[in-house]
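MFS transporter, pasting as requested.
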Amino acid sequence: MRRWPDSLRALSHRNFRLYFSAQAISTLGNWIQQVALAWLVYQLTGSAALLGVTTCATLLPQLLVGPLAGAWIDRYDKRKLLILLESLLGLQAATLATLTATGLIGPTTIVVMAAVHGLLNAVDTPLRLSLVSGFVDCRDDLGNALALNATLFTLSRFVGPPAAGLLLVLFGEAPCFALNALSYLPLIAALCWVRMAPTPRTSGSLRSVFGEGLDYILGNSGVKAMLLNVLAVNLTASTYAVLLPVFASKVFVGDARTLGWLWGAAGLGSLAASGLLAWQRAPKALPRLIFGATLVSALAMLVFAFSSQLWLSLLAMAALGFGIAGNNIGTNITLQSSTPDALRGRVVAAYTAIRFGFEAIGGLLAGLLAAHLGASPVFAGASTALLAYWAWSMRRQPSSAT
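Structure tokens follow.
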């Protein structure tokens, strides 16, 4: 058997290798679509408020549907359910490409398509994350598998936006959406090829299954502290996803390529954080890293809000990407490493609901406020709020992060 480096040890498992390779293609396609959609919205309307509405439509279902989705997916075979979800997501991307290519796309249609994508992702995201444990045969490799899975997301976040910027300049938005539709095919094939026993199913009504998961979360102070930190970071720091097109166009007087570089810088920082976590073998050390990443996020936001130099803003974006990823990925590893298998779907669903749901709320508020106050003041205000939360949380950390 091939011996893999310690930082890649999860790849020694055949099922995870299949999933990892195919997911790399799918995640890259998703980032290309995300950047293309944000650029399409801003080009059609020039509205920062509509950017916030579109982001909210994409992410808010995670908060509204995600917790119930966790109780639902724990009652079914996760692999078969994921094949269905990936097929529907591919169909959504193909529809978006067709509408754009035929000129039938408009602000209302964009919001509707974003909402459809959000509803599907509200089930798909916790389903994928909770299924990762089934792709590795050794629980000691689960943390590494989750970190490598996050590395796919962050590497695509680094490569995808600049690639999307180039594709937008050369071909326009519709081909970007079409590429994303095609990117789901390898993942569907890989899920059909993996050899694994049906995942455990939880019996009982949806209400009782949901209640069991909620009782576990509310009764565990460490889990509550981790989830509160995820809420604070994504409500504030993740608003950059909504405001970057405004900064690229208004502050730096750039085009889609400028947006791609800014987004790519954040991706580079995220990649560094996920790489660091892939080496980590001591889950007990993660809470300190997570709360340190919160401070990095707040300070990077403050620098970016007041910077008028592109090079400095790129550095700030890299630091911000590192901070957000360190928080989110570290929390995911911590939760999944300590959660019983039977409850994993529900706990991961709570994490993704807060992670993406409050990013949606923060993005909506940031877009609406930026339309009246400007992007820089809004981003500066969000960084101040995150700094205040960090100071408060550090006073409580010894009792809550143990």
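Note for the archive: The CA atoms of residues 100 and 174 lie 5 Å apart.
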